[in-house]
Design brief:
Length: 592
């Protein structure tokens, strides 16, 4: 969480910092700030709130050519101007922005206080600024001060650092939080990901853990462990700045919901050439030979894996799914030859990075499935599968879920060289298009739901996996309390929650469980619930509230999830909420 930017340019840096921060506000948005060299001094400007508030508060013209910026998701200390970054060291020699969490910050802070340092904020970042200052006082060299800081502190950090005696340089350091350098015609830049730099840079350098260095107008210096200088290896990115255009949509979430069908199509095009699957042969061999597949993921990605493991079991593989933050502390595999599948839209999720270090010790093959090329999880895996979903800007994941489930269906199909999955996904694309074209009915249902305090989702089997995802979507962007239950579990307790007009949304996709599911819905209806039935056309009753066109049963969630996504979207719209940036959340969860 938290996003950082920095740049040394031959043009005023203000707009790069502000516009850049806006593109990574999804990483956290409770406060924002920049520091810009103005003559010899780094001027710091901060606000509690959004980057837009900072933009409005700043003078339009700030001439400085060198600066750093930050958008925050609070970890240490409440969202406030004092806790907002940049933070200056005691004497003002260093000003820094930080993404990450310093685990031993209390001990380090106490040690500094004994040496006479005092602190304005509650943050771990101010501690780092002062560690660097203290080290500089002893070494007289900023690189040495940073290198020593990297052994003094434990935890995750991506840092951009201004040093007031060198107003044409930005120093940086990185461990376990992402950081990239971008080189463009007008200077060198830094950021937590590519997005801020797409308009100003065309060549990029990925900074790895325990690396540090500096950028100036025409130079980049990098050092690794043992302080050895490193070669600068540039690469390009396929991401385009146009990907950030809203194309007439009022919100990214709506745009991204309606990109579902094109996401499925792109995946099919990338992983099937019309005759055979295009997955890496060595990876396929390892999956085939594995005696257990362990899926690890969080949130929406976990829900996608619940379905994926069903596909893998159907294809003959023993497979288990775990929430990453749980598995990390209680790792388990029943196999001797395990393939671990790490599913992560961002590729930067801290809980998964923790699992990665555990899985590496347990032996086995690591596959990362991600939407983010070059991400930490991708670079550390034996194999990476890209989701090709394009940038997902809205904090609530929509099209990435669709891409995740589709990718797992393709992979399971490839296991037995069963190309019927291609026709099945084509049916999904047609059905999704039809839901997109006919989603007005969901708007009407959203009006009813928007006035409620509690909403329940029910499903059996794969519909339960879907119910979990729809419930998460609703709660995260509408702030309405919502839970999902397997249809059969209801009378074992949760039915006590049902009151008059409580919305209960039931999914029906499977002939095997249809009757049982309808009975469960009658049971809650008899207790006053307002039941909303979302069924597949092959099982539909005339009175069902929303009927989706044909898609094979095992892929039906790829169609019905659009119902859940639209419902959440229109409820949040009705409640006047910030749909793309819901409260308390951040898109890339880089702290545990
Ligand atoms: C919900 C959502 C989150 C993420 C979760 C994992 O809409 O986006 O639940 O799915 O934080 O993130 P990734 O997939 O980046 O590892």
């Amino acid at each position: 969480m938290c996003g950082i930017v920095g740049g040394v340019s031959n043009k005023p840096i203000r707009n790069y910092l502000i516009e850049g921060l806006k593109t990574i506000e999804y990483r956290g948005y409770d406060s924002a700030g920049i520091a810009v060299f103005n003559g010899k001094k780094a001027e710091i400007y901060k606000v509690r709130g959004r980057v837009e508030d900072l933009d409005n508060k700043l003078e339009k013209r700030i001439d400085g050519l060198v600066g750093i910026g930050h958008t925050r998701w609070a970890t240490h200390g409440e969202p406030s101007v004092i806790n907002a970054h940049p933070h200056a060291s005691k004497s003002g020699l260093f000003s820094i922005v930080h993404n990450g969490v310093i685990e031993n910050f209390r001990a380090v802070k106490n040690a500094l206080m004994e040496k006479g340092y005092s602190f304005l904020s509650e943050t771990d970042t101010e501690v780092i600024a002062n560690v660097i200052e203290e080290n500089y006082r002893h070494t007289g060299d900023v690189y040495k001060a940073i290198s020593k800081m990297m052994s003094d502190v434990k935890g995750s950090y991506a840092l951009a650092i201004l040093f007031s005696k060198e107003p044409d340089i930005i120093y940086f350091a990185k461990n376990r939080s992402p950081l990239l350098i971008g080189r463009g015609q007008n200077g060198n830049f830094l950021a937590s990901d590519y997005l801020p730099m797409l308009k100003v840079a065309d060549q990029f350098v990925t900074i790895s853990d325990y690396q540090y260095g500096s950028i100036s107008l025409d130079d980049i210096k990098m050092f690794g462990r043992n302080d050895h200088p490193l070669p600068i290896v540039f690469h390009e990115t396929e991401l385009k700045p146009e990907a950030l255009d809203l194309n007439g949509y009022p919100h990214y979430m709506l745009k991204e919901i309606e990109e579902a069908d094109s996401c499925v199509k792109l995946l099919v095009d990338n992983y099937y050439d019309g005759k055979s699957f295009l997955f890496d042969k060595e990876m396929m061999r390892q999956i085939k030979e594995a005696d257990n597949i362990v899926f690890l993921a969080c949130g929406t990605s976990y829900h996608a894996c619940l379905l994926g493991s069903r596909f893998f079991r159907k294809a003959g593989k023993i497979s288990d799914v775990y929430i990453a933050s749980e598995w990390a502390y209680n790792p388990y595999t029943s196999g001797k030859k395990t393939v671990y599948i790490f599913m992560s839209q961002s590729g930067e999720t801290a809980d998964l990075i923790h699992c990665l270090s555990v899985a590496k010790k347990m032996d086995g093959t690591i596959i990362t499935i991600t939407n983010t090329q070059g991400s930490t999880l991708s670079r550390s895996a034996d194999h990476t599968l890209l989701l090709y979903a394009g940038i997902e800007v809205a904090v609530a994941s929509t099209k990435a879920y669709v891409a995740q489930v589709s990718a797992l269906a393709l992979l399971a199909g490839a296991l037995n060289d069963d190309a019927s999955v291609i026709a099945d996904l084509e049916a999904v694309i047609a059905a999704q298009q039809s839901v997109i074209d006919n989603h007005d009915k969901i708007k009407n249902l959203a009006s009813f739901v928007s006035g409620k305090n509690d909403v329940y989702f029910l499903g059996r089997g794969l519909d339960y996996d879907l119910a979990l995802e729809c419930s998460l979507k609703l709660k995260e962007i509408t702030y309405i309390h919502s839970e999902a239950f397997p249809g059969g579990e209801l009378k074992h307790g949760p039915i006590a929650l049902i009151e008059k007009d409580t919305p209960v949304i039931g999914f029906i996709s499977d002939a095997k469980t249809e009757l049982a599911m309808r009975s469960n819905l009658h049971e809650v209806e008899a207790r006053g619930a307002r039941v909303i039935v979302v069924s597949s056309i092959t099982l539909a009753h005339p009175e069902d509230d929303f009927v989706v066109p044909y898609a094979p049963k095992y892929l039906s969630s790829l169609v019905k999830v659009l119902f859940g996504q639209y419902l959440a979207y229109y409820v949040a719209l009705k409640r006047g909420l910030n749909i793309d940036k819901p409260r308390n959340l951040a898109k890339s969860v880089t702290v545990e």
